[in-house]
């Protein structure tokens, strides 16, 4: 409520924010979470909370009048379509050189992601978070994060025979015939439920292609894990469709937080001001960076240091498809939750997730999202002319990612006598190099903050999301974001509260 005071205000309800809220509440502290997206707890006109991937509607996109599908074309034809403007679940946020996909709503990215719950290889951790003690992470915080997230593994005997992972078995065959390690990865989708989907005994979610616009069943999003636990403490309140616009020092070491309440058309219906003893920035790499860059540049938080907005990377994301021979079908039924990847990180700087193309028809295509070693880092900056925050990333900066992905797929194509698909991202375009699903950085740990996420210059302000991570996690990022948040909040509760 306008004028209220709260002990702790958390901006955003993704991984970092949910960990903070739960652990603070368990320590006896009242927490208020502010989330710009919707609650996603009520069914739409079709009786379902979330829209299907192949049939997008207003629920699918954040305030757009046309879809912006990551795979924009099929057989060369554009597949985007008009939709009503609505506070939908997936934001395709366009910067000049890259489109950054993010989840919007209570649960953040956990609502829209592929659920791949991957802990980086221990030997790579030094490049992921150089200032963090690896023994503590692998001994305590990664296990705590995996437990909190409800991570599980696919039953390999079932995986070997089910129609819905034929595409993944084809991916394995091609990887292994070219000598690449093929590794299974855990997921937060309940694989026992998926078995029942395949058997036809429960409503379908992963086997109905649900992923990008939410899963109606069996994906353990944060709503079902950390946030459910946090709410059960009775100490956590959440305000959806509320967007934080400013944080500034107030009397008594407190902070004044300005918040716009919005409707489902995105219009501001009320402006509120609250005070908080402590504020956690958990608006995601882009959301937190945009807020901090603006607040530093406009003088609201003058003590922030020169590292704010820097060190942003795309986790080296690049997509591609390969055209298989007609005797090598990938299956018309494809589980939307990936289970495995091709690991050429050490030799070639690429970890390629064998991804589904859940179109419902046989495409003879293998599709991959590669996470690559890309050294390029961008910065956010305040544009006083437009009143917006810009990002300096350039499309050409994806070239190292393309080169890394080619270390895998050029070899597989040569071995199999196959070619790249050129019809998925435009006309005669091989690489999906215009986007990322994995924004990281902008308020890097031990640079913009101290080694536990305390922002320099303003005691009581913390960063606790993907913006702490300097641009690359070598694998999919949410387990690392969660584990780092577990580490930092434990320290903060012990020493600051
Ligand atoms: P987020 O989860 O992004 O949460 C931030 C929240 O803050 C959002 O809900 C946002 O609406 C809210 N917010 C932002 N600004 C404000 C504001 N000013 N006021 C109020 N609220 C605000 N990762 C994996 O590890 N495995 C995968 O399989 C995987 N697949 C993915 C697939 C897709 C399509 C996408 C988009 C992402 C995927 N990711 C995956 C990435 C993963 O989801 C993100 O890395 C993760 O969600 C980031 O967590 P976070 O806590 O930093 O922020």
TrEMBL record:
Residues 436-485 form the Glucose-methanol-choline oxidoreductase C-terminal domain. PANTHER family: CHOLESTEROL OXIDASE, FAD-DEPENDENT OXIDOREDUCTASE 2 FAD BINDING DOMAIN-CONTAINING PROTEIN. The keyword Zinc does not apply. Pfam families: GMC_oxred_C, GMC_oxred_C_1st. Its cofactor is FAD. This is Cholesterol oxidase. It comes from the Bacteria. SUPFAM superfamilies: FAD-linked reductases, C-terminal domain (SSF54373), FAD/NAD(P)-binding domain (SSF51905). The keyword Zinc-finger does not apply. Keywords: Cholesterol metabolism, FAD, Flavoprotein, Isomerase, Lipid metabolism, Oxidoreductase, Steroid metabolism, Sterol metabolism. Pathway: Steroid metabolism; cholesterol degradation. Gene3D superfamilies: Cholesterol Oxidase, domain 2, FAD/NAD(P)-binding domain. Its EC number is 1.1.3.6, 5.3.3.1. Belongs to the GMC oxidoreductase family.
